[in-house]
Write a structure and sequence with these properties.
globular, mainly alpha, 76% helix, 104 residues, single chain, Helix Hairpins
Length: 104
C-alpha cells in the first residue's frame, strides 16, 4: 500500500499551470514553456531526464534514482501542461487500464 501523499503532484502541476498563464521571467517553468525552441526544448529535457533516470537505475544508486525520477516526473508535468493534458486525464487512462487488466 502507498503511504505517500501524492497530492504534491497536483500542487506542482497547479504551479506549472499558473506559470503557464502568468509569465514570470525568473521562473524556470516559464523559461521552458516560452523557450525559442518551443516544445522541442521541453522534449529535450524529458529525454535528458529519462536517460539520467535509466543511468541511475543501471548504477543501482537509490538516492540518484529518486532524484532523477523526480526530475523526470517534473518535466513530464511541464510537457503535459504545455499540451493542455490534465492529471485527471492521465488518472482516468490509468484507471481504465487497471480495470481492463482485472478483467483479463
Amino acid at each position: 500500500m502507498l503511504d505517500a501523499d501524492l497530492s504534491i503532484l497536483n500542487r506542482v502541476y497547479d504551479i506549472i499551470l499558473d506559470r503557464k498563464m502568468n509569465y514570470d521571467e525568473c521562473s524556470y517553468v516559464c523559461k521552458l514553456l516560452n523557450h525559442r525552441k518551443g516544445m522541442n526544448k521541453i522534449l529535450e529535457k524529458v529525454g535528458e531526464e529519462s536517460i539520467e533516470t535509466i543511468l541511475a537505475v543501471r548504477n543501482n544508486d537509490h538516492e540518484e534514482i529518486v532524484s532523477e525520477t523526480s526530475d523526470l516526473i517534473f518535466h513530464l508535468l511541464v510537457m503535459l501542461a504545455a499540451n493542455d493534458i490534465t492529471l485527471d486525464e492521465i488518472a482516468a487512462e490509468l484507471s481504465a487500464r487497471h480495470e481492463s487488466m482485472k478483467r483479463d
